[in-house]
# Entry
Amino acid sequence: MASALQPYNQDPNGAYVFSSRPRPAPTRLKYKDPAVIQNEESYVYGNIMYDRRVVRGNTYAQHTLPLRSQPDPAELKKQQEARRRALARKRAKEQFRLLTPEAPEGRKHKDVQTELYLEELSDHPEDASMGCQTDAFLDEPATPLFIPAKSGKDVATQIEEGELFYFDTEVQPVLEVLIGKTMEQALLEVLEEEELASLRAQQRAFQELRNAEIVEVQRLEEQERRHREEKVRRLKQQREVLENERVIAEKIAARVFAQQYLADLLPSVYNTLRDQGYFYDPVQRDIETGFLPWLMTEVDSALKKREIVLTMLDTLIYDVANSRQET
Amino acid sequence: MAGSRISEQLPPLIDRNQSPLAFGQRALPRLAAELQNPELTVRQGALAALRDLIHDPERAYETIYHGCLERLKVLLKDEDSSIRTATTEVLYLLTAHSVGREAILREDVVGCLSELLDEPVDACRRNTHLVLKMMSGFPAGVACMVSLGLVPRLVMKVAAETEDIRELVLSTLGSCMRVDTQAAQAALASDVVTVLREQLTHSSTNIRREATAAMIAISVPPQGKVKVCEEEVLPVLVQLLSDEDLEIKANAAGTIMNTAVITKGKFQSLQAGALAPLLHLVECEHRAVCANALRALTCLAEVPRAREQLLQHLPLLQTRLNHPEPIIQRASATAIQVISWTP
# Structure
C-alpha cells in the first residue's frame, strides 16, 4: 500500500500514461511449466467461474481469512495460550523421564569408579615444532597494478562550464546582499556616531555662547550694582550735606533771632526789677521798713494817748459839767 | 538563488559566551528570568546577550517594561566582580536612551550605584562613573545626585582615582555644577576649588581640560568667585593661558572673565599679569578662545589702570569687529565701548 509515489508521467499529447498498466491476474496452467509461461508474451485468461481462488457457495460457514493481515488479537492470544500449554506439557514430560532408571527396591545407586588407579591420559602425540619466517628486510618488488578486466559499458559525463549556472550572473545578488548588508551596517554606525558628534558639537557651541553671555550679564549686573551703590552713597552724602546746611542755617537764624530777642531783654528786665522794687537803697529801705513804721506806730500811740487823754478829758469835763449841772 | 532583499535583522552572531536569544517577544522575558538564575555562567551569558541587545532603543524600552532594572539592581550587589562590571556596562548603554535615563531615576538606581564608588575592580568603577557622567547631563539627574549627597563624595574621589577615571569624575562634577546651583553650593562646601586647583597643573591634557571646565562652571555663582579669589587660583590660570590645547585656553580665559566680575577678582587678575596673554588670545581663530578673551578684557577694563593700558590696544580689538561670528562682534563692540568710557 505504501508504495513510493511514482513521478507523474504525462504523455506529450496530454493524455494520462500509466506507469504500469492494469492487467487481469494470470491463471496457473496445470500442465505447463512456469518456465514456459514466462516466455509467453500473451497471457492466458481463465474463466472466472472455474478459478479456484474465487469463493463459491454459501459464505456463512466458510473459513474466512481474518479481516486484517495480522491475525485477530483474540485469536493471537488463543494461539499463544495453546502454544504455551503444549510447551508446558512437553517440559513436564521431560521431567518425568529420568536419565537413569530408578533403583529397584532394596537397592541404592552409588557412584563408583571402576578403574583401580586413575591414570592420567598422558598420551601426547608426538609433536615437533617447526618455524618458518620470511626474510624480514627484503623489499617486496612493486606489485603490478591490478587492473581488473574490463566489463560493462563505460559511461562518462562532464558538466561543461555554463551548463549548471553562470557564475558571474548568479554571484551578483549574493554579492549585493553581502556588501549591501555590510555597508548598511557600517553606514548606520557611522551615522550614529556622526549624530552623536554633531550633538556634542552643538552642545559645546551652546555652552560657549552661554558662558560668554553669562559673564556679560554678570558683568553688567555687577556694574549696575556698583553704579547703584555709588549713586545711593552719593545721594546719601548729598543729603547729609544738605541736612547739615539746613541745620546750620537754622542754628544761625535761631541765634540771630535769639540775639535780637534778647537784645532789649536786659533793660526791660532791669526796668521790671526796678519797677518791682528789687533795686533799693538799703538805707532808704531800712528807713522805710524799719524806721517809719516805728515812727508811725509811735505817732499813732502818741496820738492815741492824746486821744485817750482828750477823751478822758472830755469825759471829765462832761462829768464835771454833769455834776455841776446837777448841783 | 538568493533574493536581493536585505533583511531587517542583524546577521546572527554566534558568541559562545552569550546565552541564546529566544525569538521575538519572548527574548527579553527569558533574559530577565535568566538574570535571576543562581548559576553564575547563566547570569553572565544573559548579561552578555543583554549588552548586545540594548543598543537598539526598542529593546531598551522592552527591557525596562519587563522590569529588568530591578534584577540589575540586585545584580549590582552580586559577589562576582565580572557580573558587577557587566551590569554597570549594561546600565551605561541604557543611559544612552532617554527612556533608560528616566527609568534609572524612577527606580533609584543611582543610590545603588553610589555604593559601587569604592569598588576595587577598575573596570566596574569606570563604568559606574560613565553612568554618573551621563546622568549629570540633565537637571533631574543632577537633582537626584545632589539629594543623595554624591557631590561631596565625588569631590573627594577626584584626588584618589586613577587618571582615566579622574577625567570622568571631573567631567561629571563640571556638568553637575553647570546645571544646578545647589550642586555648586554643595561642591563649594567641600572645598572643590582647592581640589581643582591641584588638578590644573596635572601633566595629562585631558585632566587639565576637564579641571578647567569645572573651574569655569564653579566660578559662575558669586560664592564661587569669592572662593576662587581666596584660593589664589588666578596665577595658575594665567599660566594656563599659554597652554597648548585650545580648549584649555578657552576655559582658563573663561574662568578669568567670570572671576573678574567682582572687584577683588579684577585686582588679582591684574596683579597676576593677565592682560598680555589675553590680548594675545584675542587674535586666536577659535571662537570660544576669542570670545572669552574679549569678555575678560571687558571685565578688566573697568579698572582705570587697566583701561589706560588697553587704550593703546584698541586697534587690535577693532579688527575683531568684522568677524563673521555675531558673538565675537558683540563682545568686541562691548569691549571697545567699555575701554573708551570716561567718567
Notes: Chain A has a mean pLDDT of 81. Chain A touches chain B through 24 residues (CB under 8 Å). The radius of gyration of chain A is 88 Å. Residues 169-275 of chain A form one domain.
